[in-house]
Design goal:
With 510 residues, the protein is mainly α. It contains 16 helices and 10 strands. Helix 15 (444-464) packs antiparallel against helix 16 (468-491).
């Protein structure tokens, strides 16, 4: 017990690190922010000292209070890592906000250009006024920095308290840390880009994804097996229901219009006209329903701003072109107008490009289970399964080639799902292995149902059924199976993220 005088009070204080910081007995005040201005080729960054952090989460509370965020949204989070064997064990804490990366993935993927990298400070800024709440940036960031606020319908993130910095004040998290574990410092961008090893730490994704600018000071010695404490706390992700329906139904419509184009190379029939109109109506409904995923659907038109670099913007463009071309093609079929072959070809090409863009949206480094060729194969297989099956359900007298195409798509989808499951099961990557554990554990009943529907409704019944109602029931089963497959696609992905706290029992990151 050490006696520390405070305003001539006889009170005694335990000489813990927290007590020492609270009574400010440091010999000299620490520098919270750099004292000199930035030079050309420099930017601000966070420096986190793991040897000082005590896991008190004062930084989290200060950040939320400064930015007016609810308790479940944490722009700064504190995670925990541990390792070793008794009696030689270690536990450390990891406080992380936005890393203000040199190549920010949130900025690159944003379809409305709501993100900018401030040229004067290097801080990655987000404009809530521009944001439409598509949440694409939350999938792109390997650190899980952008947080979606459903109450406001927009995303928010740490901006290094940019307004405080401009007034010469330290960010709230820096000022609140009792141990001085967080600081703002200046980094030479070119030098850091050539060697950013100090941005890596146990419990953090690799800085390679976006070149994090945060410098982490590690303890002098770490046990070899030091790792995140939340490895056994993997939960299904959000299903994003509007996207489940939009993806499955737009892929169905693309497959249907490709089949109609091939069938319409001869003389169009009344049944083909009906199929074209039904497919067109379904395409319009699915694209309209997709706006329900946006936090601010009234501003959906802004999604075309990012065509230069965002696959989401390209998807919106290509699927809109597909819908327009499909309307022209359906009209030409209905009125028996010449030139149907060229119109159908244009419709099919726009639709296939739209599916490609849809797949590329999800093929991001921050979602390892999506970041593979299985994603694009799965999306195209859905179109091949459902498109011809939809035409067959509307007209049972289609050529056998239509039925065979649907069965071939089901076989391809079965092969894709089996190969992907095997790939996940054999991986040593934490996120991939965790996705497999979800599919083989908590989600195994849904996965078994999805595969059973694919085999029965996609392969067996179409090859043996003759009754129109049996064929339609088979299509309904195949559609249910693909919708379930897209649901599993979303909920089974395990994102890269920073380590969470040991005691966290909900989705709250702090």
């Amino acid at each position: 017990m050490t006696t520390l005088p405070l305003l001539d009070s006889p009170l005694l204080y335990t000489a813990t690190p927290l007590a020492r910081s609270l009574v400010q007995i440091e010999s000299s005040p620490r520098e919270l922010i750099p004292s000199r201005p930035l030079k050309a080729g420099e930017q601000y960054r966070f420096h986190f000292d793991m040897t000082k952090c005590i896991g008190c989460k004062c930084c989290v509370v200060a950040c939320n209070e400064q930015n007016g965020n609810p308790a479940e949204l944490n722009w700064r989070r504190v995670g925990e890592v541990e390792g070793g064997y008794y009696p030689h064990t270690q536990r450390h804490y990891l406080s992380m906000g936005c890393n203000h990366c040199l190549e920010p993935s949130c900025l690159i993927g944003c379809p409305v250009e709501a993100y900018t990298k401030d040229p004067g400070t290097g801080v990655v800024l987000h404009s809530a006024d521009t944001c439409i709440g598509c949440q694409y940036c939350t999938w792109n960031c390997s650190y899980g920095v952008p947080q979606y606020n459903p109450a406001r319908g927009v995303v928010g993130k740490c901006d290094m308290c940019h307004n405080r910095l401009s007034d010469g004040m330290a960010p709230a998290c820096v000022a609140a840390c009792p141990e001085g574990a967080i600081a703002i410092e200046i980094v030479n961008i070119a030098e850091w880009r050539s060697d950013y090893f100090s941005a890596n730490a146990p419990g953090l994704p690799s800085a390679d994804d976006s070149i994090s600018s945060t410098r982490v000071t590690l303890p002098e010695s770490l046990v070899p097996d030091l790792g995140r404490v939340d490895t056994n706390r993997v939960r299904p992700e959000h299903p994003h229901w509007p996207l489940v329906f939009m993806l499955a139904l737009t892929q169905l419509c693309v497959g249907a219009f490709v089949a109609l184009w091939l069938l319409a190379s001869g003389k169009a029939t009344a049944n083909l006209n009906i199929a074209a109109l039904a497919s067109l109506a379904l395409a319009g409904a699915s694209l309209g329903a997709s706006t329900m995923h946006l936090g601010r659907p009234i501003h959906a038109w802004r999604a075309l701003r990012g065509l230069r670099r965002s696959w989401l913007s390209r998807e919106v463009l290509m699927l809109s072109l597909f819908a327009g071309a499909a309307a022209i093609f359906a009209g030409m079929l209905f009125f028996a107008v010449p030139g149907r072959f060229a119109a159908g070809l244009g419709t099919g090409l726009a639709g296939l490009a739209g599916i490609t863009c849809s797949a590329r949206i999800y093929m991001v480094r921050a979602r390892p289970a999506w970041y593979s060729s299985y994603t694009i194969a799965e999306f195209f297989a859905t179109g091949l399964v459902l498109g011809p099956a939809f035409i067959h359900a509307l007209d049972v007298h289609v050529p056998p080639a239509v039925v065979n195409a649907s069965v071939l798509g089901a076989l391809a989808q079965l092969a894709v799902q089996s190969a992907k499951f095997l790939w996940l099961s054999r991986s040593d990557v934490f996120e991939l292995r965790s996705s497999w554990l979800l599919l083989a554990g908590r989600l195994r009943g849904l996965l078994a149902t999805r595969l059973a529907l694919l085999i029965a409704a996609g392969i067996l019944i179409p090859l043996t059924a003759a009754s129109p109602w049996t064929i339609r029931i088979a299509f309904a089963g195949a559609l249910a199976g693909e919708l379930l497959g897209r649901y599993l696609f979303f909920v089974s992905v395990v994102p890269k993220n920073i380590a969470a706290a040991f005691t966290a029992s909900t989705r709250r990151a702090a």
